[in-house]
Every structure is written in structure tokens, then in C-alpha cells.
Amino acid sequence: MSGGIILFDGSCNFCSTSVQFIVKRDPGAYYQFAALQSEAGRRLLTAYKVPEDTDSLILIDNNRYYMKSSAALRICKHLNGGWKMFSLFLVIPRPLRDTLYDLIAKNRYKWFGRKKACPLPSPEMKNRFL
């Protein structure tokens, strides 16, 4: 694997929008994507021994997995523009960072809505999805 893999909640509007945001700022295609609910997503969760009850953004990079704010901030390292600067927030202790992450995650369906099914990627994006 030459880059990272981002596992996301495919039924979450905020998560799907976040994937589109990342794709636009990742022209070198460092990241590939899979929905947590997909066959590929479930295989990766098992292969990396991610806890079964995980309902969080997951980044798999350099043969390790990262969750919640650690995943989100590490993703920023490979994005164009000033987004790289957000990775500096990794110096903040994880419990503090995850408090904000958990607040957003807990309310994501209420604030941003939920899809009945994970949408299929466009033909030009299909190669970025596992």
C-alpha cells in the first residue's frame, strides 16, 4: 500500500461530504476510501484488529490504524494548502481532542442527516474506492 486508506460511515452525510473534501485536496491520490459497512471496509477492520464496536473515522497508514481525532488530524498531513497545519494539533492530548470529535460524531446524523445507502462513487473517482 503506497498511501493511506480512510474508512468512513457510508450512510452519514457529513462523512461522505468529508470524503469529497479530502479528494479535492488530495490531487496526488494518497488516500483511498472504503465505507465501514462495505465488504472491503469490514475486511480491513478485521485485518487490522480494530475493535468490532467501532463507529468512527479510521485511517490506516504505515500498517497502523488511527481513530477519531488522531485519524482526522493525520489525514490533514497529506492535504494541499494550509490543511497540513491542523496536524500540529496532534500535540494536544488525545482525550481532549476526542472530546470534540465525540461531540460531532454523536450528533452527526441529527445535524447533517443520514443516507439510506452508501452512494456509489462517480466513474472518475471509482479507482479511489476499495
Tally of individual domains: 1
With strands numbered from the N-terminus, the spatial order across the biggest sheet is: 2-1-3-4
Question: Would you list the SSEs in sequence order as H and E?
Answer: EHEHEEHH
Distance between the termini: 12 Å
Biggest sheet: strands, sense, closure? 4 strands, mixed
Number of strands: 4
* Gyration radius from CA atoms, angstroms: 14 Å
Proportion of residues in β-strands: 5-15%
Low-confidence stretches: none
Helix content: 25-40%
Mean pLDDT across the residues is 87
Descriptive key words:
single chain; 130 residues; alpha+beta; four-stranded mixed β-sheet; 38% helix; DCC_oxidoreductase
Task: Summarize the structure in short.
With 130 residues, this protein is α+β, with helices and mostly antiparallel strands. 38% of the residues lie in helices and 14% in strands. A four-stranded mixed sheet has the order 2-1-3-4, sandwiched between helices.
